[in-house]
Amino acid sequence: MHGSAMNENTPTPHLNKEQHCSIEQEENCHAQADVAHSMGSSLFCLDDETQTHSAPLVRKVSRGAVKDQCQICKASSQAGQREGSSAPVTYCISAEAQPAHERGQTGSAGQTAVPGESDSEATQGNQAPQSRQEGWGCGNGVCASEEDTDLVIEVSGKKLEVHKAVLSEKSDYFKARQSRDVLRVKGVSFKTLTILVDYIYSSRMQVSKVNIVEVITGAKVLQIPCAVQAAVDKMSEQITAENCYEILTIAKRQRLGELKEKAYKHMSDNFLEILRDPAVYGRLTGGERELILTMRMEGKRALMVAEINEVYDRAGSRPPSRENSRPQSPLSMVSLEENHVIYYYNEETKDWKVLTKMPDEINTKGSGICTMYNYLFVAGGIKVQSDKGKVSDKVFCYNPLTDSWSEIRPLTQGRSQLKLVSMDGYLFAIGGECLFTVEKYDPRTDRWSPVAPLPKGAFAVAHEATTCNGELFVSGGSLFYRLLRYDTRRADWEECPFNNSRKKSTDMVAFKNFIYRFDVNRDYGVNVFKYNTVVKIWHDSASLEQTNPLPFRCAVIGNTIYCVNKSQTLQFVVEEENEQFLPEAEALKAPGEAKGALVPFVLALPKTA
Description:
Strand content: 25-35%
CATH superfamily of the largest domain: Kelch-type beta propeller
CATH topology of the largest domain: Neuraminidase
Helix content: 10-25%
Number of helices: 16
Structural class: alpha+beta
Radius of gyration: 35 Å
Shape: elongated
Number of strands: 34
């Protein structure tokens, strides 16, 4: 007993009327009282002798608090046990003038525990009250006589002794029946009653999907609104992809709006996992599917860049195949220091901040990057080992709402210098170095399947790709400019009109019904052309004079196309009557710590980011 005065997990022997506190126990109780007094509470050891020779230590309970600072614990009735009858289960309270929720959050020295219930039992919450009764008695060196309780609750022949004032503080049901000494309760099982009374005394709610309905129903019958909220909060912590639909169903039936919203939020935050599970996604209504996807996009859209390593010798330049149609071998690459950092632009502070670090397993050299359903996907690439390179088939995705990376089904074949785009809820991995094949990923089945290949001899490498109004467009990769459109109905590629410029573009993006193509000319600067996908006509759009401009990649937010490279980020604004670059003085600086090439994209970040 010595040296562990305030250890709540230390069992204390039960003291009945025939077994009074010994001198050693009494000294230990005083030692505990001294420790507790220094922490703002008092502990007392009560028996027949101490009650006879000292002033009463237990005061009347008023408005849910015992006015004297003491902790009352109920001992089992020894006489009743000798007669073979079961004694009523009796609860203890921390007799300090503080709310129940504060009592339940007290540290180990002042924590209020359910009598006779260890931490492991409290966690499980499924032990029958009768079995717990045997362990109840003196806790923390405190003993109390049965006279301390003033209400007996009877449910289905089982009895529970409690304190009227404690229950009345949290329950209008008990408050309205304070005149009664014995109360028979209907509509609530004894186990549920025990859970609710446990909560009132300790502020610990033991609830799971198995008993959530009974607990909430019982809390409503006994008019304990704080218990309903506590049960909802506890269940919210237990939501997983496996049980989210079951919890959603419970929330609907019980009309628990907050729990329902949290179930939807979990589905939204883990959308891909839910999408793959027909037992969950297949049972959602069309409106619910739209809701969880809309919730996923509710955050603020932010410009981001993935820092990757260049495959070719000239950092910041396009592959040599832009100037020469002959494909470059992976063996010709240089091995640079790996950089796997993703930055986002903070509009408030006007600077770049680190969002996450890519897993080391991702091969950024020659990889394809795109977004879908507010996830970032990174596919393929080349892993450099000494002077050799190995093409990768791995695909990773990043979830900004949970700040987590995961690996999905790999490509059917390794690809480098591929283009990865999303359209109509699918990912398309297009071409690659010396590859004409195209494959499509279905997130519902987590599978890749082949689609019509690119025309041979035209798109060996270094092509561009984008989607516009549900159509897939691919350009570049040959000696002269070509634009192809993938016809989803015929599952084939068709040639589109070409414009007067036969040069190869640095990038192309879609905005509304137009595809904007950016050409970089080292002598003149940047020229912009746009293709109307409806009437199938090219137009000159705008130009920007620059000396020896670097190639860049593009991303769209609102009506602004951001053109990003390591030196700066230009802003091309598209308005109804005007399309132009903003002055270079307004260009955004690149992330100061970035060393590799920058690939821009857009994600919606949660409000806490």
